[in-house]
Amino acid sequence: MKNNTPSLRRAPFYLLAFFLILWIIGISVNEPQRVLEQAKSICLECIGIG
Amino acid sequence: MELARKWIQALWFFLANGFWGFPLSGTLYQGPLKVICSPGLNCYSCPAATTYCPIGSLQQLLLGIRFSLQSGQYFFGTFVIGSMGMLGAVFGRFICGWACPFGFFQEILYKIPTRKKSIPQVFNWIKYLFLLLFVIILPLVIVDDFGMGKPWFCKFVCPAGTAEAGIPMLLLRPELRETVGWLYVNKLVILAGFVYWSIISSRPFCRTTCPLGAFYALFSKYQLIKMKLKKDACTGCGACHAVCPVEIRFNETPDSCECVNCMRCMTEACNFGAIVVDIAGYEVHSPPFKNQKITTK
Question: Could you give the C-alpha distances from B154 to B135, B162, B210, in angstroms and in order?
Fold first, then answer.
């Protein structure tokens, strides 16, 4: 009988940790506030108007 | 399973566009949910949008990077890239297949009965150029006298923005109609082109143009939840080729960057249990679905 014992893939967790660090860096420099300001306003240029 | 996927796509469509008070307010949603990253491509200038579009926000941060540095703020887009990256690391292009409003829109269009055409594989590379050039390099490099760049992808290409925001905003705010020019016409032509292409080909925008899909595609091999081929169970019958909406030969390229993880190959085609969902190395076997009969070789 074949040994089908699964092995944990670690790469997704390394990637997750890396991007979590980036996300936390973004929060530490108050980037979410800037993102929120942008997302709350209509970017006419972005939608082809103006 | 396909019906469940359609319902989940519809649910995400309405979650990402859940502000239906815009006809009364006359403007877009401005609440705190807009600090949450939309997993799929969904224009945040859409009056009903409840979350921010990662592609739009990333361009906005990169185009104003000089200005923010001069004012002592270090906005390099790390919050947005971090959000996109965490989604990509866990779900990858499952998001394209299950949670993208514009992907859902294209799938509905493809149901219109007409003669269907395939898309040459070489076109798949174009989306990476859009990600690199239109989302990152051009907004960073080409700047005006004030050091501000332009949101190249949103401004010149994005048909989702035209459909979800450009057209609704003109209907909602008549005073904006005076400002319409060649740029708007250009975007309407692009939208019309993709609408037509979506009727005759499956998910053309996702496969050839979407920079968010291109970003998630980078995780295909390493994403936490992924589709996996059990080579010892595969007979090479090719049944998975026939049902694939993005024309992948799953049994030959199981880690293809083009796979939108719709799971149709697993639930509608493979009769041998050769395709499974893999979560961090642990296989999740599907129960036999309708039209599917597990047999042994």
Answer: 9, 9, 11
